[in-house]
Amino acid sequence: MAIREIVEFPDPRLRTKAQPVVAFDAELRQLVADMFETMYDAPGIGLAATQVDVHRQLLVLDVSEEKNAPMVIINPRIVSREGSQVYQEGCLSVPGIFADVERADRIRVEAHDVDGKEVVIEADGLLAVCIQHEMDHLTGKLFVDYLSPLKRELVRKKLAKQRRHAEPAAAGA
Ligand code: ZN
Question: Which positions are annotated as active-site residues?
């Protein structure tokens, strides 16, 4: 297993549309293992393949407190959505930024598991938020896209400033 580099906003690679996974093979299992390691290390509750610069329709998630409920969702499709909820979201590709986003409260998702078997996932609450957030990544969309252009520009500036300040520490590591 290996920790992969997480691509950060406003890197244009985050705008790439992911292609469906067609080969459920050893390479896919390796990618899934690496994505879990990267997500738990960050730490985060979800990671889309797009964020590690692999443009395939694959998500890993674990929204449990104990970090013992890993989920792999491949080629997901939302087939129904109900209600709405507002949750303060963050993103490993937009570090240190949090903002309220409105999404469906309950969703039903058809997807594949890591063996290529078809699965149906019913999700609500935080899991529903997380799946919708990660699925956005697969279409090149980020949670900051839901903000006003002015707010998004502020986010861009704040991140640029954070990076400048982080450089000496990173160079010494
Ligand atoms: Zn994200």
Answer: 134
